Amino acid sequence: MPQQQEQLATPESKVLEHMMETGVFDDLRLKILKEMKETKSLKEIASKRVAEELKKGELKEKVAKLKSGGDGAAARVRLHKHVMEELRKRLEKEMMDVISDCTWKLMYSGSEIGNQIDAEVHAVFLSVVANELI
């Protein structure tokens, strides 16, 4: 059975497998995450959308209640958790789409990380091809 899997493996899957096994994939992923965290436009979009959602109906009332400081600490903690969970539900898909678009732009913009990804993939691809020829 392993022999059949080897025959079905494409050069692309072998490159990805090698990058994952050697830790290159994780290193690049962490660098992308670091750059994404520093992306000002992404932070601005997220802040704007959270502010917009907090001004709507039920959440607006709950935020006002939190700011008033009433109902005791335990109730405020529960209310805060509820507000945060509601924000996550409302914004998760939209923000993941924004983050995905931003990530792809970062990788293909000719940025340092984009160039590094290109160089790493190319080097691993050449290594995989060379090993197959031997």
Describe this protein's structure:
By secondary structure, the protein is mainly alpha-helical. The chain has one domain (11-133). The protein is built from seven helices and no strands. The longest helix has 37 residues, at 72-108. The chain is elongated, with a radius of gyration of 23 Å.
Q: How are the SSEs ordered, and which strands pair?
A:
Elements: H1 2-8, H2 11-22, H3 24-37, H4 40-54, H5 57-68, H6 72-108, H7 112-133
Helix pairs in contact: 2-7, 3-7, 4-6, 5-6
Cα-atom radius of gyration = 23 Å
How many angstroms separate the termini? 23 Å
Number of separate helices: 7
Biggest beta sheet attributes = none
Question: Segments where pLDDT lies below 50 for 5+ residues?
Answer: none
Instruction: Estimate percent helicity.
Output: over 70%
Task: Based on Cα principal axes, name the global outline.
Answer: elongated
Q: How do the SSEs run, as a string of H and E?
A: HHHHHHH
The amount of beta strand, in percent, is: under 5%
